[in-house]
Amino acid sequence: MTPIELRASLGLAGLYALRMLGMFLILPVFAVYAGKLPGGDNHAMVGLAFGAYGLTQALLQLPFGMWSDRVGRKKVIYIGLALFAVGSVMCAMADHVAWLIVGRAVQGAGAISAAITALLADLTREENRTKAMAMIGGSIASTFAISLVAAPTLAAWIGLPGIFLLTAGLTIAAMIGVKQIIPNPTISRFHSDAEISATRLPAVLRHPQLLRMNYGVFALHAAQMAMFTVMPLLLTQLGGLELTHHWWVYLPVVLVSFVLMVPAVIYGEKKQHLKEVFIFAISLMLLAQLGMALYMPNLTMIVVWLSVYFIAFNILEATQPSLISKIAPSDAKGTAMGVYNTCQSLSMFLGSAIAGWLYQQHGSVTAIFLLCAALMVIWLFFAAGMQPPLPVKTQMFHIGDNWEGSAQALSVKLAAIDGVKEAVVLIDERVALLKVLQTGWDEAAARQLIEETRQI
Questions:
Q1: Is the pLDDT of residue 127 over 80?
Q2: Predicted model pTM
């Protein structure tokens, strides 16, 4: 990476981390603290407040990304961060759960994930973009783990309003970072690998394998939000732990799950058993949901089932984006990821809202976790019919800003190279997108062919 690319990648990964920290910090404590507000005795309202963020995020994520193509990446990012900061202050000042719902909805309206990804694509060369995206993915995973451990203690110090004010402060810091650290792109253009295309959307929505993945991320994150809607209450009431001590549970289960997740993912990728690992993790998630529903009499079993849950969750969270990349058509990867992320946001709303309603109606968690188990059963059925993904990776090559050859002819020639499974040349984006075998493909021949076409 060039210094500019490294600066942009690290800066945008940090921006993502700051923003996600504000969202993740409330996960382990929201249900307890929101329950103390007027109206907090209505768990359905608490569930709505918890999930309102996901609803507006799902509605605005794709439009904000497309809007950034027209008005500029940074302008949309500033607007989104401002909305997130305003929503955070509204949540901090809320004196009733109803106002908390409004504030959370405003927070979610700052839907800038697609704009950040597009800006990253503007600022990195094709051959370095995967590394840059990996930095963002790593920042999200580490922020999630840190938040689970730090949030209970932090909430004890400053309360939920304090966390929301801290979030607003971090968001303002992020806006300053966008101004001072993130470079301005020399050229801003559409990137099929990072952005959603309206013309490719119908094909993605009809793609049977991608539909399986979209349901999967929906089920996974609906269950996640449902669990965090009630788990803080369970740890306090059933487990007998004060909120400040909840990290005693989260820290070991998160560490163990990360350690066990790594060999499973490596085995799936390197040994070409990704589908088997995927189905195993869904089965493990089903076991965790059934265990939480049917046998959770004390703190020990809460820890056991949370450990099983997080092992499965981390494997699935790590493998699903890889599967999307392998399955999606080369020129529609950004569109596929956009739909995938929208399904994830929508599930955050529905998972917490339905869990809150069920807890209000039944006063127990059994129905919640049985519903989550049913989601996993359906997911297992869909995953069983999934075609085993090819052991491929995506390679991108810049073909030159002045290139005027035949895109179709170059695509055919590139597709004929040993180890290339799919090739498409996009003249407007000045890029050749290839799906190639993870090992044994003739990269030198591809580079030579592209170089020769530049000189014609």
A1: no
A2: 0.92
